[in-house]
Design brief:
It is a single chain. The chain has 184 residues and is of the alpha+beta class. The protein has one domain (3-183). The protein contains 5 helices and 11 strands. The chain has helices at 26-35, 59-64, 104-107, 118-127, 133-139; strands at 3-5, 11-13, 20-25, 72-76, 83-87, 90-97, 111-117, 144-148, 154-159, 164-175, 180-183. The strands form 2 sheets. The protein has an 8-stranded antiparallel barrel with strand order 3-4-5-6-10-9-8-7. The protein has a two-stranded antiparallel sheet with strand order 1-2. Strand 5 (83-87) and strand 6 (90-97) form a beta hairpin. The longest helix has 10 residues, at 26-35. It is globular. 24% of the residues are buried.
Length: 184
């Protein structure tokens, strides 16, 4: 369980799962699937250390087995809507901003993610059994997709109808390995 403050100073606790959000970077799963085309989710009920296709039971196994840089632990502030994203040894603080005139076409070149909450993830578990991970992520009807700019300064959420829902601006990056912070 995490107890943190959002960028605006509000207390966030993830013990009831209401503040947890999940980000899955689609290109990571696409690259993994291209490299390991036969590895499916929940495809086997046993573990064989010599058979890679038995190593991955859940979507998180793809991240947890050797890819900590793909573990986007995300907390949502219910009071102000801010996002705090932990990746490896970094903390990224995003605050909501007024909607701009960005269109989906403007952000198509940005890194694309699936964005979901705990309830969506539980439904996704039932959907993905026996599917390839990238295929499961792009074909499941998640409520939101997320785009992060190349410089990571902006995060944009769209719904399934490609309507802009939220825009966020990066306000701070903390590097826990250096035990320092960098304000933007």
């Amino acid at each position: 369980m995490a107890h943190i403050n959002c960028p605006n100073g509000h207390f966030i606790w993830d013990g009831d799962f209401k503040t947890i959000r999940y980000l899955f970077r689609l290109n990571f799963f696409k690259e993994f699937e291209n490299t390991h085309p036969k590895v499916k989710l929940n495809s086997d009920s046993y573990y064989d250390p010599d058979n890679i296709s038995t190593w991955y039971k859940t979507i998180f196994d793809y991240i947890d087995i050797g890819h900590p840089e793909e573990d986007f632990d995300t907390l949502y502030c219910e009071k102000c809507g801010a996002l705090v994203i932990f990746v490896s040894h970094f903390r990224y603080d995003y605050v909501p901003i007024k909607k701009t005139s960005l269109t989906l076409g403007d952000v198509k070149s940005w890194e694309k993610f699936v964005y979901c909450n705990e309830d969506d993830l539980q439904d996704f578990y039932n959907f993905y059994d026996g599917k390839l991970p990238y295929q499961a992520l792009i074909f499941y009807p998640f409520k939101y997709k997320c785009f992060i700019s190349e410089d990571q300064k902006f995060l944009i959420l769209y719904d399934t109808k490609d309507l802009l829902i939220h825009e966020y601006k990066l306000t701070r990056i903390l590097d826990f390995d250096r035990d320092s912070n960098r304000l933007l």
